[in-house]
Amino acid sequence: DNIRLMALEGALLHDIPEVVTNDITYDVKKMIPEVPALLQPYEENIIKEHSSRAHRILFNPETQDEVIAKKVIKHADILSVLQYCQNEETLGNKNFTELRKATEKRVNNSRKELELLISQSKKEDN
To answer: What is the pTM assigned to this prediction?
Structure first.
């Protein structure tokens, strides 16, 4: 329950800086690696103004539960990209086929990472 609450709070606030910056997509950030570093201080300040706990979860998780919550948020973000790509393809937009395939790989990798974190957490609890 604690992880769910942290993931929910972080998820609700993690995109709030995009009110000003708009959504800079993963592929743009990958092509221009300086972009995330330029945006991070602004994003951190905005989120910290709204919630110090969400700030800690998203930028500096201190506990295993916070690390898992952060990963859940990231995984949900990737799933939303996959859903968008699938919707575009359903509408006949063939330009999204390659992005969908790449996103499916990201989803699978993210899921494995999340499962590993949860498995490690359960072992530590026992």
So the answer is: 0.88
Contact of 7 with 53, CB cutoff 8 Å: no
43 residue type, one letter: E
Cα separation, 25 vs 18, in Å, equals 11
Q: Are 59 and 44 in contact (CB under 8 A)?
A: yes
**Whether the Cβ atoms of residue 117 and residue 68 lie closer than 8 Å to each other:** yes
pLDDT (tens digit, 9 = 90+) per residue, 66-97? Answer: 999 999 999 999 999 999 999 999 999 999 99
Q: Which two tokens stand for residue 123?
A: 């072992």
Provide CB contacts within 8 A for 23, sequence distance 6+: 15
With residue 117 as reference, give the H or E element that holds it.
helix 97-125
**Which amino acid, residue 68?**
I
